[in-house]
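Researcher: First entry.
Model:
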Amino acid sequence: MRKAVIVPFLFLTFGLGAKSASLIEIYQLATINDPFIKEALANKEAIIESKPQARSLILPQLSSSATFSDSDVNGQSTFQQKFINPITGDETVLTSNTDFIQESETLQWDITLRQTIFDYGVWMNLRKANKTVAQAEVDYLAAEQDLIIRVASAYFNILAAEDTLEAEQAARQSIEKQLDQAQKRFEVGLIAITDVQEAQAAYDQSIANEIIAKRSLATAKESLRSITDSYPGKLKKPGNDLPLIMPNPQRENDWVDTSLEQNLSLMSAEVGVEIAKSEIKIQRSGHLPTIGVQAARRDTDTDSFRSDSGGALSPADSENVNEGVGIQMTLPLYSGGQVRSRVKQAVARHRASKEKLERVARETTKVARDSYLGVISGIATVKALQQSVMSSATALQATEAGYEVGTRTTVDVLDARRRLFSAQKNLAISKYDYILNILRLKQAAGTLNVQDLEQINGWLM
């Protein structure tokens, strides 16, 4: 049974290089290994415990204790007696010493029940705990959405880096061939040395560009590894038939309104304002009285006896039971200004929480508008670059044909090839940006979920 669990997990972790890994597979791996989502879950579980802790303060408090003592006393008693001679009237004092041993065993136990009747701060603390737990739930949902964005960004950054590297490698190979042709033509006197030098300079630059592209790809893979704890192999890419879907609804303001109502970060900030407001009430309760009822019972049982040289005395055993019920009221009078200072502190934090809410609201609006425009412009950009690739390919063919007959120079061919490779790379990157803007727009609106990732995963080949 254990192998059935471990083997698929090892295949998912280390088998990504065996075939092309999809976006959803990378995400599933991230949900297991990402430290940020684990941290968010642990924080949520810790904060949830604040609610039963706050509730415990309004429930009965029952406590008990017991004490047992055993004492032995060895001592000496001194007695003096006065005698008066009836004949002479003389007074005589007689002193006698008596040794004694006293032993006693005492068992005492008590039980106390306390119940709060009125404590405004305790009730406000319970309300605050409810809001804190609600905020923790929202924060965790936001962390889950953030994981989707981080995984998708790292995934498509790798694809973009791979496309850039492929374009640079193709450019280098093409320029290398062009350099070889230029050298041969120069040797037979068909072109000038400047054409060879320009081809050589372009080739040297292409080598440098390829090195930079390799470094960028390594960095992108490391970013994804920090999330999944494993290096990715080959990744699936969007196909040529990538659907270009307009946002629904298509009005920008509709998305902004939805974001201001459902954005998780904004909702968390709103709850934060309520939490800060509750804290003010808690601190102000330091000036209010508290009332509680207390019931207690104490039982003391003592077994004791004493013996002396004059003979044993009767045992001195005793048992006492004390029971009582009372109501206690406490009214704070002066605490050195502590309560007043804490109230001022809570008021300042409440003001800060409101400013944070305003800041998050503005950021949410900005992200919603920017992501919406990103999707709209992304669709137009993809379409334009698709046409650019076809035009660049046609232009390259014409330039190469002109070079063969001598009407175009080496520089013309190099420029045409650069334009084609650049258009191909930009087309691929524009697709990734379009997809990421779709996810960011839904995150801003608070509707992003795994189903959105699965839909995009279906667009990959």
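Researcher: Second entry.
Model:
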Amino acid sequence: MKKVIITGADGFIGSNFIKSLVKEGVEVWAVVYPQSVTKSRIDKWEGVHCIECDIDALEDMASYFPREADGFYHFAWQGVHANDRNNMSLQMGNIELCLKCLRFAAQVKARKFILPGSTSEYLYYGRPINEQAVPSPQNAYGSVKVALRYLAKQYAEELGIDFIYVVITGIYAADRRDNNVIFYTIDKLLRGEKPSVTRLEQLWDYVHIRDVAQALALIGDKGRRGAFYAIGRGDNQPLYKYIEIIHRCIDPKLPIGIGEVPYVNDILPSSCIDLSAVYEDTGFVPKINFEDGIREVIDTMREEIGNE
């Protein structure tokens, strides 16, 4: 039976990933913050060992974890909310937390350490993100992510543990609510109101959480030491294309205000990815197209609005 260790296990990505793993018979050691209010997402599943522990105390808890786990996924991150992304002291704290997790992974002889990054590290790169992408972070959150990619990789080499860096594009799911144009548009249209947005010409990519979970599992199994992988669907199309799909799925007769809001400046961000590396090394192919996946979101939000 495969064994993995996951920090930030009760977060959105962590909990959905664990749900996918236990279905495949993988045994999971899930590290959550003490007194976690979202622990119930994961502690009900067979095969999950839920461990409430500060990352600072991990090294003292080694006896609770398996030796030679197949993978160590470090999802825990402080300061993910928009209001905290320029909190330098908070963001800088993530560096030491990650390095402590690397030391612990080496202590328990985990075989691989997988660290997720963010497309926010490359918002103004302007091309699909791959290992050669030039970072262009716009806040402390993105800057620390960039720095940690290189620091953690170097430290993992010193510790003798395989290190893999993963950048995930825009994730959506029926049980997630983000403050972005996708959820804004769905909410407005379902309420019979007109959404007003920019021309939405920036290139973007969206991926369903079930595809993310599949990719992460494959990377844990087959990922190459020192690799950089981008996870997404790879549609890489203008944002307005996604809005047109949403409009059509809800009611194409409703008014929609594409172009009513001016751009803040002429430099457009982008969030699109190059899937070639993850496909070549692991065979990952996303299965859920945007229209099918977003219909799940629309149906769930319609029910929620109807129950208000």
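Model: Note on the second entry: The first strand starts at residue 3 and ends at 7.
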